[in-house]
Amino acid sequence: MVPVSIEKFVALYMKNNPKENKKNLIENLKASVSAKENGACCSQCGQPIWAIGTAIAGWNSCFTCLTGEADDSVDYEIDKVC
């Protein structure tokens, strides 16, 4: 995963999704980072959650279960939990 700060990710995400609620996105990201730090696991397979994906999807999920892909080498994750 490519480490990124919450602030930088929010800026990138909002550029591509201008109609989304920025305040809610930040709150969701902070909550999912906290959940990951506290050991939250994917509700489907039990692996550690992907904080960014969890914040956007609204449910605890790992990268693979959320995207169906195994290679996460070019996808972002919040630097605090990489």
Q: Specify the structural class.
A: mainly alpha
The side-by-side strand order for the widest beta sheet comes to 1-2
> What is the share of helical residues?
40-55%
What is the gyration radius calculated from CA atoms? 12 Å
Q: What is the percentage of strand-forming residues?
A: 5-15%
Total count of helical runs of at least 4 residues:
4
- Overall form: globular
Mean pLDDT, as a whole number? 97
Q: Can you offer a commentary on this structure?
A:
Helix 2 crosses helix 3. The chain has 82 residues and is mainly alpha-helical. It is built from four helices and two strands. The protein has helices at 6-16, 22-37, 51-57, 63-67, and strands spanning 2-4, 76-78. Strands 1-2 form a two-stranded parallel sheet.
Brief descriptors of the model:
82 residues; mainly alpha; two-stranded parallel ribbon
Task: List the SSEs and their pairings.
Blueprint: E1 2-4, H1 6-16, H2 22-37, H3 51-57, H4 63-67, E2 76-78
Parallel strand pairs: 1-2
In short:
With 82 residues, the chain is mainly α.
